[in-house]
Design brief:
The protein is α/β, with parallel strands linked by helices. It is 44% helix and 16% strand. It contains twelve helices and seven strands. A seven-stranded mixed sheet has the order 2-3-4-1-5-6-7, with helices on both faces. Strand 3 and strand 4 form a beta hairpin. The termini are far apart.
Length: 281
């Protein structure tokens, strides 16, 4: 991959094209020079996420720290269908609301790095706890694959999980697995590849939790956010976080990190002032 390609936001829309933001990934410490796609690996603690990471990457992995943080980061790689995938293991979190450093790192990577696929590892025995993170991830990105891990434990506890129904309800691929024994990993690789290359088009379920009046405000603000950052794939989510007073998103908005880092700051200031007035009223 040449320097110009690795430094730009790779164009979306063509089938099989990467969707990641190579420039922002580099700022986050991930160099895509020799890789075709990047996959984020997310999940609650104790779901077997590290086991999935080790099984997919083998010895092709290394560790370091996230830029400017003391939090460890592991990344590795694998090849599938003649394509090279970089896998980044995000910190284990229960949410993406940025109430801790781990949550901020995971959220920022998905939002700003725009990985080609975000694979969320969930515990089949505790779906009610794990789906909170899944729904939050799907608010940010459509490119999601669910790894339904620990299916052996679910069976041992007499639990039956209908992964096909779950996939229909969530609108994204759901792959049952027992990662510690290598079961289901071939199907997981296939699902990741299909989403990354555009063969599978996802339609993630979105929670409708706001009143009609608030939805109108969110819709209006979303349009304004998109007007300033036209390449942003998730203006609605950003609008919600701005209205909620999320300091990290407000900072990213003001600095232009939400777009291609070249937007006029005057427009950001004007909209931020208008946002403050709406919050007061």
């Amino acid at each position: 991959m040449n320097e110009s390609k690795s430094s730009q936001v790779i164009q979306r829309g063509c089938e099989g094209c990467p969707a990641h933001n190579a420039a922002n990934l580099l700022k986050l410490g991930v160099d895509m020079e020799e890789w075709d796609f990047v996959v984020a690996l997310a999940g609650n603690p104790n779901t077997g996420k590290s086991t999935v990471f080790n099984a997919l990457t083998g010895l092709r992995q290394h560790t370091g720290n996230w830029p400017g943080k003391t939090v460890a980061r592991a990344e590795g790689g694998f090849e599938y269908a003649d394509r090279r995938y970089k896998l980044v293991d995000l910190p284990g979190t229960y949410s993406l609301l940025s109430t801790s450093v781990d949550e901020e790192i995971a959220r920022d990577f998905i939002l700003f790095g725009q990985p080609d696929v975000t694979t969320v590892v969930v515990d089949a025995t505790r779906l009610e706890r794990n789906l909170n993170l899944v729904l939050q991830v799907m608010e940010i990105t459509d490119r999601v694959v669910i790894c339904l891990n620990l299916m052996d434990e679910a069976k041992r506890h007499g639990l039956i999980v209908d992964e096909r129904r779950l996939a229909r309800d969530l609108g994204v691929p759901v792959v049952p697995s027992v990662a510690r024994y290598g079961k289901g990993l071939d199907d997981l690789l296939q699902a990741i590849n299909d989403v990354a290359t555009g063969k599978t088009q996802t339609k993630p379920y979105k929670i409708q939790r706001f009143s009609k009046e608030l939805e109108e405000i969110i819709s209006g603000l979303s349009q304004k956010v998109r007007g300033i950052f036209p390449t942003l794939p998730n203006p609605r989510w950003v609008a919600i976080r701005l209205l909620d007073g999320d300091e990290r998103i407000v900072e990213a908005f003001e600095k232009g990190d939400l777009g291609e880092l070249t937007q006029a700051t005057t427009e950001s200031v004007d909209l931020q002032a208008q946002l403050s007035e709406e919050q007061v009223t």
